[in-house]
Amino acid sequence: MSSLPTVATVIGSGTMGPGIAATLARAGSTVRLYDISEDAIARAEAAYGVVQGVLEAVDSPSAPGGSVTFGTDLDAALAGTELIIEAVPEKLELKQKVFADLEARVGDDVIIATNTSGIPISTMAKSLTVPGRLIGMHWSNPPHLIPMIEIIPGEATDPTLVDKLAEIVKAFNYVPVIEKEIPGFVENRVLYAILRECMALLEEGIVTPEGLDAAVKWGIGYKLSVVGPTRLLDMAGLDIYQAVSSYLNKDLDNSTDTPQFIKDKIAAGELGFKSGAGMYEYGEGDVDAKRKEIITGLIAARKTLSTIPNV
Ligand SMILES: NC(=O)c1ccc[n+]([C@@H]2O[C@H](COP(=O)([O-])OP(=O)(O)OC[C@H]3O[C@@H](n4cnc5c(N)ncnc54)[C@H](O)[C@@H]3O)[C@@H](O)[C@H]2O)c1
Ligand SMILES: Cc1ncc(CO)c(C(=O)O)c1O
């Protein structure tokens, strides 16, 4: 019998919510996607066909009966739900307010999973009437394409929820990674360690953005997509790691704040795709073209990687 919830609710229909809802629905759940904003719901409904096309392209597990309904009526979104996935903006007070609204409407047995990128689960749980039902479920963007989910119990999380959520994740063929609570969790700690060094190399003029992207994509990105970092050390030799890390580690960037050149770009309104300029400049139509290239590339890479054994 599948561990998937028969009915699930996703709260927040921005960047993450629609892909999360579509993934669960394709696997067979009845999913209700809720947002306070009518516009956000309209955008999600309009984009749903594209998301379904992506799931089809990567052969995401499908079962009959699944569906997504879109709406701004919270009671309707919660009727009969077994699992709520919260994906509202990364603000502690907002999430706590949402949890209070949810708890007032559902039974004590309903699981609340939060897609927070790093707010401690234990901190959020303090405001709950049933703190044991809150658990971290960190999807990666785009959620309908990246088949890995971090599961993070807080201090008060009911321990049985960890395995239960891991079984749900496996039911839609994603890889659950169970972690301990730590700022940024595992994925973002590793990503931000890489980004810190990358930004320092750019700021010091050691390499161009194009050169950096090529070096990371073909040097380490390609390799790490097949071999994880621990296996990579076995492949390289621990003695080599010791020899290099003994002089290199102390030279690596260890700044604790965001680089000044990034702050300057933000002050100038250069935020990336959403504002037409960021690390690169984008002309008319460039952003849409780049988004398409990225999705096409991720689909192709996921299909290829799924045929390769875990080494
Ligand atoms: N964007 C990413 O790459 C990414 C990746 C992993 C995790 N996350 C995390 O997922 C969460 C959501 O991120 P996002 O990027 O989708 O945010 P977003 O800002 O794109 O979307 C959030 C949505 O929540 C809605 N919302 C606001 N208040 C609400 C409320 N009270 N009830 C219901 N809906 C409400 C907004 O209208 C908006 O549509 C955050 O915690 C974020 O840190 C984001
Ligand atoms: C730079 C960056 N920061 C945070 C997140 C989400 O937690 C992501 C992502 O891609 O998921 C990211 O790229």
From TrEMBL:
InterPro entries in the cross-refs: 3-OHacyl-CoA_DH, 3-OHacyl-CoA_DH_CS, 3-OHacyl-CoA_DH_NAD-bd, 3HC_DH_C, 6-PGluconate_DH-like_C_sf, 6PGD_dom2, NAD(P)-bd_dom_sf
Pathway: Lipid metabolism; butanoate metabolism
Coiled coil: none
Domain 3-hydroxyacyl-CoA dehydrogenase C-terminal stretches: 184-282
Residues annotated as domain 3-hydroxyacyl-CoA dehydrogenase NAD binding: 8-181
Keywords, in A-Z order: Oxidoreductase
Transmembrane segments: none
Gene3D superfamilies (UniProt xref): N-(1-d-carboxylethyl)-l-norvaline Dehydrogenase, domain 2, NAD(P)-binding Rossmann-like Domain
Cited SUPFAM superfamilies: 6-phosphogluconate dehydrogenase C-terminal domain-like, NAD(P)-binding Rossmann-fold domains
Homology family: Belongs to the 3-hydroxyacyl-CoA dehydrogenase family.
Protein name: 3-hydroxyacyl-CoA dehydrogenase NAD-binding domain-containing protein
Organism: Herbiconiux gentiana
